[in-house]
Amino acid sequence: MMLIHDCVIRDRTITASPRLIVQNGVNSDALRLTPDEEYSHGTVTLVIARDGRSTAIPWLGTPIPVPGDMLQEPGEIRLTAICRPDDGTRIVTRRMETPLLVVRSGDLTGSYEPGDPALDEVEQAVADAREATRAALDAAARCNTIILTDGRPAAGGKANDLAISASDGTLWRYEETEMNR
Q: Nearest to residue 79, comparing CAs of 91, 95, 63?
């Protein structure tokens, strides 16, 4: 079970509670974002920064696990939330005044070594898959018909219809042309 750290965005400021994270955890802590109205109308990315390195993770409405490589040593973790509303602007929270603190863990004795914390690539792949699913669902909501094909889409589709290739998953969207009006 993960410890959830509530991260609240208000007036372009992000705060987190509880602040303490014990070092050497693997999939032990997650960040639950609660955006204000300004951050509720666009795509939000959470940047997790530590010791000059950072990881940007798209927020899809569910808690975001703290990357294991950020928990190997005691120190500060700062968060920044970036919102990209549909109007082309970019909104960024200010520097986190009270960062999360990775505190020293108890002694690890014997032959125990913490598991491979480098699940960041897997976590990113899951986030990418969730984003692709959300984009496909959004596209499907705007279309008239979804057609499954054995290759490239055939003529005859209406504007905003989607065609999906069964062989490789390629997605096409029909556009309005002189031929299909």
A: 95
Residue-wise pLDDT for 89-145, tens only, equals: 999 999 999 999 999 998 876 545 555 544 556 667 777 778 888 877 776 666 666
> Which pair of tokens denotes residue 62?
């569910």
Q: Which residue has the higher pLDDT, 6 or 118?
A: 6
pLDDT of residue 111: 46
Alpha-carbon gap, residue 1 to 88, rounded angstroms: 38
DSSP 94-150: PP-SS-EEEEPPPP--TT--------HHHHHHHHHHHHHHHHHHHHHHH-S-EEEES
Element (H, E) at 56: strand 53-58
Residue whose pair of structure tokens reads 């299909």 in the numeric block: 180
DSSP H/E element including 33: strand 29-34
Indicate yes or no: pTM above 0.70. no
Residue 143 has which token pair?
Answer: 């279309």
